[in-house]
Automatic annotation (TrEMBL):
Organism listed in the record: Gossypium darwinii (Darwin's cotton)
Protein family membership: Belongs to the major facilitator superfamily.
Name listed for the protein in its UniProt record: SPX domain-containing protein
A GO cellular component annotation in the UniProt record: plant-type vacuole membrane
Positions of region (Disordered): 456-482
Bilayer disposition of the protein: Multi-pass membrane protein
């Protein structure tokens, strides 16, 4: 009985029925206004006058701005509903969100669906019907298709289409001496389109690519943030951060095709390549933390330190051949890992790039990583030469180290003369603690999230009395709830089951990809006798699939299916790729290895984008800033997965190369099955 009482109170607090009824009422008013404007439009076609056209366009603009307010109302209520459910889960330690969504969202007359259903769903059918029967009828038609929310799509189509027609009509009455001009879309249409895209989480290629970066931001950023970003933004500095990302990924994968041969030349087994490749990831586990903390004070100095350490590490890697020292080889790779500044690159984009181009910058970050991943093995395939200068040997094994050492030296010179350190005064003067009015506004928002979204005057009076009694305590709670995590332990305590599952999925896909890439040279040499150049071409081709696949998924598939549906389907395809990779059929053929590897790699790339998108949505806002942020947690999860995968390759090598493939694939399969089961368990909470 107590649970039913709590459940009833929560449903009363949410008051979704009032939201839906208000939304239906406003849609009806908008449809009525559009019908009247359409009648004026039809009358105007018989006796057109420029003044009447201008007046009619202004009428459509007014409807457009009313629609914009209504879209903002829906967005605020959707965000508020999600936050209320998350707060309830956290406070009562009960997975109420899962129960609520499961019991309400799938009902044929669910009011919850009216808040969260996509605005543009069935928009094509709605707009087509509008052309036939007019605004009032299309409103009824929209109700038949999906009740209230989809009717907004008809209003959007009506406003934009009529404004465009009137603009063309007005343009035909201009003076013949005026130069022809291309028609410009009305600003209100652009604003409505942006609001619809934000509300529906509709995506395109840049959005989908930017999701890979996991550069988190607030759901409704403050208008003042744009001015702050403009003062701190420097284009060349952004390019330097992207160049750092590209070079580091090249540095990571340039040794993969030759690491087994390098290990054998120093007297070790071929499978020691797992430790050689993984040494960089081991160091990155620690470097990500101190670089993230360092970026709180500076961006320039961490990048300089990173470049110097990477220059030294690559030089040590190259010199290990002439010194005949496996220890020097491993130390060189460790130094390279200690120079990983990806946390700084992410933080710079998040803090210093203006909001209007942050999505493009995030997509650039991911594209630079993908391009570096493809260029690394390809460059190793080109460096198939052998010569000596004095006592230094330059061959296929040492040239990757020498080439990267020169590249980091050139980058360091460019960085020293071109990077502009962002002003810290702007950040401090505009911090959340610098403005009392901003603090008061945030306190009001926090209190609002604990109240019904639509309430009566009597309820408002009761809530005001309760708020006065709890003013002191709520202020302390709200201040605490906005503070970023101060340690890994405090960050971990903020992780909900949904977030933990998404981090597990990220761990799984990085583990599977690292197994595929790191053991490729050993496996292909054993089964197919591939040369270094052939392995390099295979790995480069895998890397080159990243951008085309993301174009298809980001531009089309993400707009047709929910993220959680794509997530589950991608996990299943990764599992299929792993199963097809096992050496069961004798002989093990090149088509089987290539096709299974392609399925696994492409599915993992798709999975990574959707996974990080959902992770940014279900993660606490306290993890969007500070040293121990969401980006750091995902980086640590992925890096630890790579370390374990490379260690697995080396340990499996003791059982012989004939058993290497199947033994390394077994943990991948087990983790993948567990992640699929965990996804199904939290499926209803992935909104």
């Amino acid at each position: 009985m107590s649970f039913l009482k709590v459940e009833s109170d929560v449903f009363h607090t949410l008051q979704i029925e009032k939201i839906v009824l208000f939304l239906l009422e406003q849609q009806g008013l908008l449809a009525s206004k559009l019908e009247k404007l359409r009648e004026q439009h039809d009358a105007l076609e018989q006796q057109p006058e420029i003044s009447q056209i201008t007046e009619l366009r202004e009428g459509y603009r007014v409807v457009g701005y009313d629609l914009l307010k209504l879209l903002y109302f829906v967005e605020m209520n959707a965000i508020g509903l999600r936050k209320i459910l998350k707060k309830f889960d956290k406070r009562f330690r009960y997975r109420f969100t899962d129960y609520y969504v499961k019991s309400r969202a799938n009902h044929p007359y669910s009011q919850l669906q009216q808040v969260f259903k996509h605005v543009v769903m069935c928009q094509t059918q709605i707009c087509f019907a509008f052309l036939l029967v007019g605004s009032i009828s299309i409103f009824n038609y929209a109700c038949k298709w999906g009740f209230n929310i989809q009717g907004l799509g008809a209003v959007v189509g009506a406003v934009s289409r009529n404004l465009h027609e009137l603009q063309d009509c007005q343009g035909s009455y201009l003076s013949i001496y005026d130069p022809p001009a291309l028609p410009l879309q009305d600003p209100v249409v652009d604003s409505i389109k942006a609001a619809v895209d934000r509300l529906t989480h509709s995506t395109n290629f840049l959005n989908f690519m930017a999701q890979h970066a996991l550069i988190m931001q607030e759901e409704l950023p403050a208008p003042a943030e744009e001015q702050i970003d403009e003062e701190r933004y420097h284009y060349v500095s952004l390019l330097l951060n992207l160049a750092n990302t590209f070079l580091y990924m090249v540095n990571t994968y340039i040794i993969v095709p030759t690491a087994d041969n390098y290990s054998m030349s120093l007297g070790a087994a071929a499978t020691v390549c797992g430790i050689v490749i993984g040494a960089m990831a081991v160091a990155q586990v620690f470097s990500s933390v101190y670089f993230s903390a360092w970026s709180n004070r500076s961006y320039f100095r961490p990048l300089v330190f990173s470049s110097i350490v990477l220059f030294v590490g690559n030089a040590m890697y190259a010199l290990a051949y002439d010194l005949n020292s496996l220890t020097m080889l491993l130390l060189g790779r460790l130094f390279c890992g200690f120079g990983s500044a990806r946390a700084v690159n992410r933080r710079y984009i998040s803090d210093c790039v203006p909001l209007k181009i942050r999505m493009q910058a995030s997509a650039g970050f991911v594209s630079a990583s993908a391009l570096g991943m493809a260029c690394g093995p390809a460059l190793a395939g080109i460096l198939q030469i052998n010569f000596k200068i004095y006592k230094l040997t330059f061959n296929a094994m040492t040239l990757p180290g020498w080439v990267m050492a020169v590249a980091w030296l050139v980058y360091l010179i460019w960085l020293w003369f071109s990077f502009k350190e962002p002003s810290r005064d702007v950040e401090e003067n505009n911090s959340p603690h610098a403005s009392d009015s901003e603090t008061a506004e945030k306190n009001t928002l926090e209190k609002g999230l604990k109240q019904p979204l639509l309430i009566t005057s009597e309820e408002q009076q009761e809530d005001d009395e309760d708020a006065e009694a709890e003013a002191d305590g709520s202020e302390e709670v709200s201040q605490e709830s906005r503070r970023p995590a101060t340690s890994i332990a405090s960050a971990y305590r903020l992780l909900t089951p949904s977030v933990k599952v998404q981090l597990l999925i990220y761990f799984m896909l990085k583990y599977a990809m690292e197994i595929l890439l790191s053991e490729s040279s050993v496996v292909t040499t054993y089964y197919f006798s591939w040369s270094t150049s052939t392995v390099a071409v295979f790995l480069a081709c895998l890397g080159l699939t990243v951008l085309p696949v993301n174009i298809v998924v980001g531009s089309y598939i993400s707009n047709m299916f929910e993220d959680r549906q794509i997530l589950l389907a991608s996990e299943i395809m990764v599992c299929v790729g792993i199963l097809l990779s096992f050496h069961v059929i004798i002989p093990y053929s090149v088509p089987q290895y290539v096709c299974s590897g392609l399925i696994m790699f492409v599915s993992a790339e798709v999975l990574e984008g959707v996974n990080l998108s959902l992770l940014s949505r279900v993660m606490s806002s306290r993890l969007s800033r500070g040293t121990y942020n969401g980006g750091l947690l995902s980086t640590e999860a992925g890096t630890i997965a790579r370390v374990i995968a490379d260690a697995t390759i080396t340990m499996a090598g003791f059982l012989g190369q004939s058993q290497l493939l199947n033994i390394t694939l077994l943990p991948s399969l087990l983790i993948c099955v567990i992640s699929i089961a965990a996804t199904c368990f939290t499926y209803n909470s992935l909104y």
